[in-house]
Design a protein that fits this description.
By secondary structure, the chain is α+β, with helices and mostly antiparallel strands. Helices cover about 20% and strands about 10% of the residues. The strands form two sheets. It has a two-stranded antiparallel sheet with strand order 1-2. The protein has a two-stranded antiparallel sheet with strand order 3-4.
């Protein structure tokens, strides 16, 4: 029986694949797919936008300058629209 195809979404590594198996870790005898051990990403902070309410995540630029607490909006557009609403009120 052929090994399971990682291209169907089983391998979450997001890295180059060769043939039908993940190059990082071949399937074991039970047919388990790549489990990304050792490559997990750290938790990323997120909070809702003050204007639209959509969640957005911390960026390296804000973290490096300790500005995450001051960031309120997910985009320049939301910041501009919020300012327009404040001016109208």
């Amino acid at each position: 029986m052929a090994p399971p195809d990682h291209a169907g979404g089983g391998c979450r590594a997001g890295l180059a694949r060769t043939g039908s198996a993940c190059w990082r870790k071949p399937p074991d005898a039970a047919g388990a797919l790549c489990d990304d051990d050792g490559m997990s990403r750290p938790e990323v902070r997120s909070k809702p936008c003050a204007h639209c309410g959509r969640p957005f995540t911390d960026r390296k630029r804000w973290s490096g300058r300790d500005q995450w607490d001051q960031v309120l909006y997910c985009s320049r557009g939301c910041r501009a629209n919020a300012a327009k609403q404040r001016r109208r009120a």
